[in-house]
């Protein structure tokens, strides 16, 4: 089963308890490995359920099964900064968790320094954990396995402790569902999917350029779902000029990928659907110095401009990696597609083949010149999948195999032994951004609930610092709509959703924002962070361990809370954390 062929789940991510049911052992020939594989495949399927509803993140799924074969509980990570899959499954299973086995597609560890998942498994009395794959991020890899084993829990890792053909097939589903984080970790670029729709004779438009519509309405609906699985959608200048696309996910809510236009010359129309930022933002990447006057025009509309000394797909992907992207969706024409493939940044292809023939000597094809002169040079897809959607056929496959998830990377000490000129820990700057980064617990999006007083002095629980921060924008405003905003943000299922609600309302209905917000927002964030680092001892220890280092929130686009792409940001989040660190250290000396 390919990465994109997992079923999309509903937006609800908390498993409700239901009486345990029996997986029919007859269907798996009473083979123990087949039973183990079935549970792991189910965990991988669960892990994919939030795809399209939240921004891409490491996908975790968990199944709790008793020794008699009953599935007692299930869960999956909805978004970064939400309740771990393992904890959801245990809450669903209740007392059935004791002496049961937990099956997880990915080694626990969404956030460095957060032991919620491991602690939940141990405290619930789980006797054994089967892990589909070790965590691909080096700072998390092996941590949970070691922690569980140190607590007396038996841990079996597929491919290490369990080996067979059927086990390897189950392990493959775990790799596929987390292909984006694997590629990001091993290749230092986002996982990239190239999608195109073509006629049976290989054309993506008529000779005139007209292309609406090659694929059916059902196929286009599926494309909206695929878009929602990505951080960003990339098109070239030709697509903007010819099709004037909107590039929205249009699935009735949830994650909206940023839209990116690649254009060396900025020969783009002054009016285009992509310059409408009411629903989602747009970034234009271009050659340094291109059409300065047009850059100013786009900037006046709110479009972000990013210049490159050398504009090519590889440079753009490395930039998007630094920006925190896990997955990118390419919907460009043949010229840019060929360039992206030649640059080696495309990992998977989705081709929609419509049962139509349009002919035309000059009609464009989905991929331009690759310099191939013999069929022996053709690029063969790996793990090819076929699916009929309406009258169309979806053909998907990988252009390159997924990289090794356990590369041999020397430790700091090993590196020093190899090259004595390398000084261990010489960097005095610590960057953090996504919750899965080495210091991701510092993020205001991390899954650490806090209790903060309201206007009446009564304490309320907020699921994250970001939930509290976004809601404070509307507190004290004498308007029922503002009160509703606060409640909607408070009940948001993830920090990402809380931020999306708060920012959207602030942009669309600025009259609902408290008048003193600009002057108090730093203090609001400070108080929330102080609460977080005061009530979680391991976070406090992690913060104090950074003494002597500069802390930088590495968001390349948030120039207030983050450090910006080239250090031009104000980095107020990093500043507040360093202020708190100083206060905590001062208190410890008293």
Task: List its traits.
transit peptide, 9-stranded mixed β-sheet, 6-stranded mixed β-sheet, multifunctional enzyme, glycosidase, 590 residues, disordered N terminus, globular, alpha/beta, oxidoreductase
SSE blueprint:
Blueprint: E1 21-22, H1 32-47, E2 61-65, E3 70-76, H2 85-93, E4 101-104, H3 116-123, E5 128-131, H4 143-150, E6 154-157, H5 165-177, H6 179-187, E7 191-199, H7 217-227, E8 232-236, H8 237-243, E9 258-262, E10 282-287, H9 292-300, E11 304-308, H10 313-322, E12 327-330, H11 334-342, E13 348-354, E14 382-389, E15 392-398, H12 412-418, E16 429-432, E17 450-453, E18 459-462, H13 465-471, H14 480-490, H15 495-508, H16 517-535, H17 537-544, E19 550-553, H18 572-589
Parallel strand pairs: 4-5, 5-6, 7-12, 7-13, 8-9, 8-12, 9-10, 10-11, 16-19
Antiparallel strand pairs: 1-3, 2-3, 2-4, 13-15, 14-15, 17-18
Helix pairs in contact: 1-5, 2-3, 13-14, 13-15, 13-16, 14-15, 16-17, 16-18
User: What integer is the average pLDDT?
Assistant: 86
Ranges where pLDDT stays below 50 over 5 or more residues in a row are 1-30, 407-412, 414-427
Contiguous helical run count: 18
The fraction of residues in strands falls at 15-25%
Broad shape: globular
Rg, rounded, reads 25 Å
Structural class: alpha/beta
Helix content: 25-40%
Strand order of the largest sheet: 11-10-9-8-12-7-13-15-14
Oligomeric category: single chain
The N- and C-terminal alpha carbons lie at a distance of 60 Å
Major pleated sheet: 9 strands, mixed
Q: What's the total number of strands?
A: 19
């Amino acid at each position: 089963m390919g990465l994109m062929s997992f079923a999309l789940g509903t937006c609800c991510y908390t498993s409700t308890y239901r009486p345990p049911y029996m997986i029919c052992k007859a269907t798996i020939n009473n083979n123990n490995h087949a039973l183990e594989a079935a549970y792991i495949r189910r965990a991988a399927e669960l892990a994919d359920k939030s795809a399209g509803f939240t921004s891409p993140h490491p996908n975790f799924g968990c199944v709790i099964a008793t020794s008699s074969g009953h599935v007692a509980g299930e869960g999956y990570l909805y978004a970064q900064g939400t309740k771990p899959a393992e904890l959801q499954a245990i809450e669903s299973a209740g007392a059935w968790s004791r002496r049961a086995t937990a099956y997880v597609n990915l080694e626990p560890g969404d956030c460095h320094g957060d032991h919620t998942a491991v602690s939940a498994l141990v405290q619930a009395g789980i006797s054994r954990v089967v892990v589909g794959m070790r965590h691909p991020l080096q700072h998390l890899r092996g941590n949970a396995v070691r922690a569980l084993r140190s607590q007396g829990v038996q841990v079996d890792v597929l491919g290490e402790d369990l080996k067979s053909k059927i086990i390897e097939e189950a392990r493959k589903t775990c790799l596929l569902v987390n292909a984006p984080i694997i590629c990001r970790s091993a290749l230092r670029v986002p996982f990239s999917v190239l999608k195109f729709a073509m006629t049976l004779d290989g054309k993506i438009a008529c000779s005139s350029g007209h292309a609406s519509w090659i694929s059916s309405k059902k196929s286009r609906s599926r494309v909206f779902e695929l878009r929602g699985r990505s951080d960003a959608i990339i098109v070239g200048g030709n697509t903007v000029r010819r099709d004037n696309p909107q590039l929205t996910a249009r699935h009735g809510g949830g994650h909206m990928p940023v839209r990116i236009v690649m254009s060396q010359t900025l020969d783009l129309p002054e009016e285009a659907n992509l310059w409408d930022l009411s629903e989602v933002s747009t970034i234009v990447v271009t050659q340094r110095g291109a059409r300065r006057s047009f850059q100013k025009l786009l900037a006046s509309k709110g479009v972000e401009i990013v210049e490159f000394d050398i504009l090519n797909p590889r440079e753009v992907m490395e930039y998007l990696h630094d920006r925190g992207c896990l997955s990118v969706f390419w919907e460009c024409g043949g010229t840019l597609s060929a360039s992206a493939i030649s640059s080696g940044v495309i990992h998977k292809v989705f081709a929609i083949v419509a049962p139509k023939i349009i002919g035309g000597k000059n009609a464009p094809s989905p991929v331009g010149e690759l310099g191939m002169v013999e069929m022996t040079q053709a690029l063969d897809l790996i793990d090819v999948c076929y699916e009929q959607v309406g009258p169309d056929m979806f053909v998907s496959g990988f252009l390159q195999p997924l990289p090794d998830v356990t590369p041999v990377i020397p430790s700091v000490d090993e590196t020093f032994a190899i090259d004595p000129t390398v000084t261990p820990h010489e960097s005095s700057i610590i960057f953090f951004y996504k919750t899965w980064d080495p210091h991701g617990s510092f993020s205001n999006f991390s899954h650490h609930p806090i209790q903060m007083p309201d206007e009446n002095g009564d304490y309320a629980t907020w699921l994250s610092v970001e939930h509290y921060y976004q809601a404070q924008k509307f507190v004290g405003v004498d308007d029922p709509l503002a009160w509703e905003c606060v409640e909607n943000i408070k009940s948001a299922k993830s920090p990402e959703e809380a931020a999306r609600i708060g920012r959207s309302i602030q942009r669309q209905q600025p009259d609902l924002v408290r008048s003193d917000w600009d002057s108090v927002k730093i203090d609001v964030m400070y108080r929330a962070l102080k609460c977080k680092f005061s009530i979680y001892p391991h976070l406090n220890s992690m913060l104090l361990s950074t003494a002597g280092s500069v802390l930088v929130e590495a968001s390349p686009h948030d120039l207030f809370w983050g450090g910006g792409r080239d250090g031009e940001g104000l980095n107020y989040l990093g500043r507040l954390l360093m202020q708190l660190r100083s206060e905590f250290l001062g208190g410890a000396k008293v």
